[in-house]
Every structure is written in C-alpha cells, then in structure tokens.
Amino acid sequence: MTIYHVSFGFSGKQIAIEDVQKVLAGDGWARYAPNCWIVETNESAQLLTMRLRALCQSTDSLFICELNLKNNFGYLHQEIWDWINARTR
User: What is the pTM of this model?
Assistant: First the structure.
C-alpha cells in the first residue's frame, strides 16, 4: 500500500465531495480539508490521477504525491490523526 496526498484546485465549480468519495471507494482515505485527501491505495499516482481527473474541468488542477507519514505535525481533527496513526504504527 502507498499513501498519497491528493489536492484539487478548482477554477470553476467545485467537484461534489460524494463524487470524489465514489471514485476513492475501495481505497482507504481521510479528507482533512475541502480540497485535500490522504489516500491509501495499491494504485500508482498516475492511475489514481487518471481516475480522479475524470471528475475535473479542463481548467482545474489536481496534484498527487506520495506522502511520508512518519514525520508529521499539525492541527487536524482527532479522527484524521487516528486514521494517520493507524497507518504509521
């Protein structure tokens, strides 16, 4: 399993959260901001990008990168920390 950070930059209408969650169904994920997810999947960043890009308008942006959760700090809701901690122990 690989963990990725996924963020969208919406230039027009924002993508429905339910639509993103349908695409991510089967993957482990945590949404910590309106346009940001942490996703655990067996897929490559390229394949994940292709699946999610289908939701975007041509002027939107999408950024996906592998995420190292071993060195982290921040201010998040407890359920997000619980999700992260379950994958780093």
Answer: 0.85
Burial code (b: 16+ CB inside 10 Å, e: under 16) for 37-70 equals bbbbbebebeebbeebeeebeeebebebeebeee
The residue length of the chain stands at: 89
Sorted by where each begins, the domain ranges of the chain are 2-88
| Residue of 8, 53, 13, 6 lying closest to 30 (CA atoms) | 6
Please give the C-alpha separations between residue 29 and each of 22, 38, 43, 57, in angstroms, as whole numbers.
Answer: 11, 5, 13, 23
Please provide the CATH number assigned to the domain covering 2-88: 3.30.70.240
At 51-66, the pLDDT tens digits run 988 888 888 889 999 9
* Dist. CA 56–CA 15, nearest whole Å: 7
Mean pLDDT computed over 16-39:
87
> pLDDT at position 14, please?
76
